[in-house]
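In the lab's daily routine, each protein ends up as an entry in a very long ledger. A line of letters takes care of the sequence, but it says nothing directly about the fold. The fold becomes a row of whole numbers, each drawn from a learned catalogue of backbone shapes. The protein below has been through that process, and both of its lines are reproduced in full:
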Amino acid sequence: MRTRVKICCMASMSEAQLAIELGADAVGFVGAMPSGRGVLDDETIAAIATRVPPPTATFLLTSELTADAIAGHVERTRTSTVQIVSHIGTSEAARLAETLPGTRRVQVIHVEDGRALDLIGPYAPYVHAYLLDSGRPNLPIPEFGGTGRIHDWRISAEFVRRSPHPVFLAGGLTAANVVDAIRRVRPFGVDLCSGVRTQGRLDQSKLTAFMEMVRQADHG
């Protein structure tokens, strides 16, 4: 099965177009966050997301904690998918599924240790996919992504084996390690931001190399 690729932290329509031209299946937009890179205001996200042609998916990264706030964020940005970066309460996840039945919902799981596996079951009835990242949501200023750190892929591989839904792998991926990551974890898709950027800007050479390595992993 072909590994899907999501390129995050889109800063402009030209970046989104470059990602799509080089084969990205999805592009991500970072909403307001307590920390991290690539944050855009809602109006800018909507202006770009509504111009992205299908079948490319548009992901909104939201740090909102309640179903109503998340739904409002999606409505303002007009994206096809919402990536929930906080470990929200399952009651809110259930309400969100009722509120946004037509929006794809991806729950981020921050893999700090093996307890990440305990989060598969509680969220499973309410989401379409998981995304494994290397954030630290319990810090005084939470980290929800864009860290450039790798987490324990052994836990990620077990997560994929147990999950009833597709799983994206994120956290410190680059052209140099994505083949190993895909072969060890076997995710549905991979997601990255800093690994294909130079001085904050999407780098065509890095992205081209990354896409080639993903294809190599799929055919190796």
